[in-house]
Amino acid sequence: MQSLWVKKDELVQTQWREGDAPVPGDGQILLAIEKYALTANNITYAVVGDGFGYWNFFPAGDDRWGIVPVWGFATVVASGHADIAVGERVYGYLPMASHLLVTPVNVQDGGFVDGAAHRQGLAIIYNQYHRLGTDESPREAERAIFQPLFTTSFLIEHFMRSNDWFGAEALVVTSASSKTALGLAMVVKNLSPEIRRIGLTSADNKAFVEETGLYDEVLVYHHLASADAGRATVSVDFAGNGPLLAEIHAHWGDNLKFSSLVGATHVEQRGGAADLQGPKPELFFAPTAAETLMKEIGPAAFRARVDEQFAAFVESASGYLAIEDLTGTEALRSAYLAMLANEIAPSRGLMCHFAHGRA
């Protein structure tokens, strides 16, 4: 068994650790991880790992080190559970590691929950695993790369629409090239077409963002002052850049009706974002929003609504996303470090593979 350990207080410090794969006991199964997507979302898990409990899902056994969670596919290679057979494949929340021992509970045809003791009390959305049979499906790479992020996109739009968009006519998003921002733009385009979509991005990414066709207007950050501030607007900040957030608040002033923070940290931790004009920014935490909506409409209806929008998004994303397959421990470690350093272009979709459970 191999796992990539990351130093919690110095995320560039990494090392592969090796050991024996665990043997499943009664009611447990052992998963061999086939492949996982690597996105900026995984870096967020590491950056806020202590504050939001992300390090607790796959503990390394040493408090100084953590294993970064990812989303991907795995195969059952040993089973002590009567209802789950060797050879079955699953999709869900996994560690950057070759194997994972889980304790399935609430087992149904479509999936199960990991009932491991250390995962009790953690967000249920991360403990659910989808059962896939034994065969691969089309567009698995796109599912792993986009679906966790897209669920957040879906939930943000649902939250805004449930609040009548706070009376706004337009939406401005930062990091418009990010996968979560692209997903949000797509859902808004489909479900709230009356809302004008404004994307803010870097000069290097402007052409890519325009190519997606998901925004009504795309501006580079230093041209923010040219944006029309006459419409009532809501903002969704994916960038975590305090001065930029302050500029958005100052530019729209009283016409900024709601300010949402997604992904990184609380506003007081975003340097330069103190004493903002307009509404106080509010942190959007997708797992809580998901649990609330699931209680309202049920898990099956929730998944169906997300999947309907996700299918349309994947169809459009295939036109501008290039899937890259990576194999081998050094390639996987280098990809993590490149993502941490923000060196991966938004047009690249990284899939990291283990060969038969070994890197």
Structural description of this entry:
The protein has 359 residues and is α/β, with parallel strands linked by helices. 31% of the residues lie in helices and 28% in strands. It has helices spanning 40-47, 49-52, 124-127, 140-162, 179-191, 206-212, 242-252, 286-297, 299-317, 329-340; strands at 2-7, 10-18, 29-38, 65-66, 69-79, 89-95, 99-102, 104-105, 111-114, 128-131, 170-173, 196-201, 217-220, 233-237, 256-262, 282-284, 322-327, 348-353. The strands form 3 sheets. Strands 3, 5, 6, 7, 8, 9, 10, 17 and 18 form a 9-stranded mixed beta sheet that branches. The protein has a 6-stranded parallel beta sheet with strand order 13-12-11-14-15-16, with helices on both faces. Helix 4 crosses helix 5 and helix 4 (140-162) packs across helix 9. Mean pLDDT is 90; it is low at 265-269.
Mean pLDDT across all amino acids: 90
Extract low-pLDDT stretches.
265-269
- Class by alpha and beta content: alpha/beta
Q: How many E strands?
A: 18
